[in-house]
Write a structure and sequence with these properties.
The structure holds two protein chains of two kinds. In chain A, 28% of the residues lie in helices and 22% in strands. Chain A has four helices and five strands; from the N terminus they run βαβαααβββ. Chain A has helices spanning 4-7, 40-46, 52-61, 77-89, and strands spanning 2-3, 25-33, 90-98, 105-109, 112-113. Chain A starts with a strand and ends in a 10-residue tail after the last strand. Chain B is of the alpha/beta class. Chain B has two domains: 3-185, VC0802-like (2-Layer Sandwich), CATH 3.30.2130; 190-298, 3-Layer(aba) Sandwich (Rossmann fold). Chain B has helices at 17-27, 56-65, 82-91, 93-96, 118-127, 186-189, 205-214, 232-239, 251-255, 262-269, 324-342, and strands at residues 3-9, 48-53, 69-79, 105-112, 144-151, 171-180, 222-225, 243-248, 276-281, 297-298. In chain B, the strands form two sheets. Chain B has a six-stranded mixed sheet. The chains are: A alpha+beta, B alpha/beta. At the A-B interface, strand 1, helix 2, strand 4 and strand 5 of A face strand 8, helix 9, strand 9 and helix 11 of B. Chain B: GO terms for molecular function: methyltransferase activity; nucleic acid binding.
């Protein structure tokens, strides 16, 4: 169930991993598309909280190229619809997320990512 | 223009009455005039409150959203005797004169902490004869309902005859029913016993609804529960339209026994599974959220007590920390354990 909006909010938090720890790389993922109710206010309201480049790249990796590489100044309905699809309708059910910096792997099972750290990784 | 409205509250969680009202008012941009400037001086233990609102629609909006509102009435009169009530009703003729010529009506007489015998109910209704209403009396589907309430002192724990103290009320209120609280029945809808997935620490429906109301949950908002457990807070918050994120240190609570996570299953029961944004397993004291303003509100039932005490990653006492070498040896075992948790 991990949606790309969630992927856009999670960073590696292992001990000492403070730079280049976002976005997490997706690995061996199985995705499923599930329709969601379109709420333009939510999508446009959330724009300012998104890391745009990370989102575009993650979407590309999963085969969705509907988003422009740069966030345009004018946001039209088409873009909002595409963004809605990318943010809320693409679900990652299985796979893992890998930290680009320390290589820590966060497994996703039944759509729930396990972001727990082992004892030597906290501090 | 501000008019007076009589609010009748449900007999539960009195200390939540005002906060819930304020939240709903803030969410819907409704201005409420309270009898006291300083809200802490308000007596919330009484179920009747006369508040000022701009119009009737505001009353309807509040009654639709607030769990603790039983009904809202256009306020005509209050008093410690019926003479006072009648006099005030006469003085407020302008409020009800339009109902004199041709509006079908009925009277409802109720009491708080007491039941009024039928004979006296009739007397009370007849005592309002001076209003000289010409419309038809209609017991089923009247155009308007006049309501009269008597408030009695709390008599719990005393022995008494059935009708002892009848008529010795503290105060009586009179008004016209505008709307019955429609949110109140959500308490039944969200009854934990009828939920397809719950745990031993699932929060009771009424409190979860009250808390959801205080997050100002509305469509388009993103709310986070860092101790989601079995998701009691998530369902009610999502019901009001918000998207909900959930995380918990123990993934088993969120998943349950089946493949599809338990929280998603129960959310589907309420038709809100789409609004469960995502669930994550992590310790919120060591959370992986990236920096930035992410959520509109946080609602949670934090861990306490024995049944679900606080859990954290790591050790309480750092001096007992094992050596790195020992940890490495144990790590393969830990990974297996990890798989158990993420099953």
């Amino acid at each position: 169930m991990v949606r790309l909006i969630t992927h856009n909010l999670l960073a590696c938090h292992a001990k000492g991993c403070t730079t280049n720890n976002f976005p997490l790389q997706l690995k061996d993922v199985t995705i499923e598309l599930r329709e969601a109710e379109f709420n333009p206010d939510f999508v446009s309201g959330f724009l300012s909280r998104l890391e745009w480049t990370a989102l575009v790249n993650a979407a590309k990796e999963l085969g969705d190229t509907s988003l422009p590489p740069e966030l345009p100044d004018m946001v039209d309905d088409d873009l909002l619809k595409n963004l809605h699809h990318v943010l809320l309708e693409i679900h990652i059910d299985e796979g893992s997320m890998i930290c680009p910096n320390c290589g820590h792997s966060y497994p996703i099972s039944n759509g729930i990512p396990n972001m727990l750290l082992a004892e030597h990784e906290i501090g | 223009m501000v008019s007076q409205y009589l609010f009748v509250f449900a007999q539960a969680h009195d200390e939540f009455r005002i906060p819930e009202l304020l939240s709903a008012a803030e969410l819907h941009k409704i201005s409420i005039t309270f009898p006291e400037e300083d809200l802490s001086k308000l007596d919330v233990s009484r179920p009747f409150m006369v508040l000022g609102l701009e119009n009737e629609d505001d009353a309807r909006t509040l009654a639709k959203r607030c769990i603790l509102i039983k009904s809202v009435h256009e306020f005509y009169a209050r008093g410690t005797t019926y003479e006072e009530v009648h006099q005030q009703t006469r003085d407020n003729l302008a409020l009800w004169s339009r109902h004199i010529p041709d509006t079908s009506f009925k009277f409802k007489v109720e009491a708080y902490n007491h039941s009024i015998p039928q004979r006296r109910q009739k007397e009370i209704v007849e005592s309002f004869g001076f209003m000289a209403l010409l419309g038809k009396i209609e017991m089923k589907n009247p155009d308007i309902i006049f309501s009269c309430f008597e408030e009695y002192p709390d008599k719990r724990g005393t022995t008494r005859d059935k009708l002892e103290g009848d008529g010795k009320f503290l105060e009586a209120f009179f008004g016209r029913l505008i709307v019955e609280g429609t949110a109140r029945k959500l308490v039944k809808t969200f009854d934990v016993k009828k939920r397809s997935y719950y745990g031993n620490t699932s929060m009771e429906a009424e409190i979860s609804l009250l808390m959801a109301n205080q997050t100002l949950a509305a469509p388009g908002k993103l709310v986070y529960d860092p101790f989601i457990g079995t998701g009691s807070m998530a369902y009610t918050t999502a019901y009001f339209g918000a998207y909900v994120y959930g995380s918990d240190i123990d993934g088993r609570q969120m998943r349950g026994k089946e493949k599809k996570p338990g929280i998603v299953r129960a959310a589907a029961q309420y038709g809100v599974s789409q609004r469960i944004m995502d669930l994550c397993t992590f310790d919120v004291t060591r959370n992986p959220w990236r920096c930035g303003e992410l959520f509109d509100a946080i609602v949670t039932d934090p861990p306490y007590g024995v049944r679900a005490g606080a859990k954290r990653l790591g050790r309480k006492n750092e001096t007992h920390r094992p050596s790195e070498e020992y940890i490495c040896k144990r790590l393969s075992g830990a990974l297996q354990l990890n798989e158990y948790y993420t099953r």
